[in-house]
Design goal:
With 231 residues, the chain is mainly α. Helices cover 74% and strands 2% of the residues. It has 9 helices and 2 strands. The protein has a two-stranded antiparallel sheet with strand order 1-2. The radius of gyration is 18 Å and the shape is globular. The relative contact order is 0.15.
Length: 231
Amino acid sequence: MSDLLFGRTSGTLSVIVVSLNVLSVAVMCAALALLGRRNQLGWWLVAAGFICASAAALINNVSSAGGSTVVLALTLISLVITLVLTAGVGVYGLLMFQKFPPANSMIRDFTLRRFATSDLLFPLLVAILYTGVSLLATLSIFLRFSASTPPVGVLGVLALNGFLFGLLPAGLLGLAQRSRWGWFLIAAASLTGIVGTTLSAGGSVLIFLFLAQGLLALYGWGRWGSIPKSS
């Protein structure tokens, strides 16, 4: 039953990694529910969710790095960049929300930005940078077991996977910029999480949470539809 719910675990570290991953997605679900209601507390939870995910990656990757100094250094560099990039989106979103007057309590009263192609630039850069650092982490572990780099096809799949997961911080950056289309990027990242968890037998709990994350993205898109656009 435990394997069905949480995937196969082997040892204390594995249990901690799974628990942190589950917690990170659950916290992100709460964050999206709050952001859908324009509640700035959601940005604190965004940062917390990414910190949990980074902690899980740190434990998992460092334990896989073995005694290689080079592999360990590359792993730590990629994890630090990922943490700064993702948690930084939460901090940036909070600062952007705080520029607007409170409607009541923690809820901010703002207008949506009208869509412009240039608005996609920075979210796209975030997704690309996330792809690069995720590849660095994967390659560092691969170097421990092989003296050569993975085949081009494998690198392509890894890059695509990293880019799709990078749509989550990219979409959140869009929300920080008051762009409603950011919710669609979050929904796409959630679908990627469902597929990836299913293929890796990561457990039904994570699948359910990623599904909830995707539904909350659609909920947020609907809620933001009533917000007027700036002139």
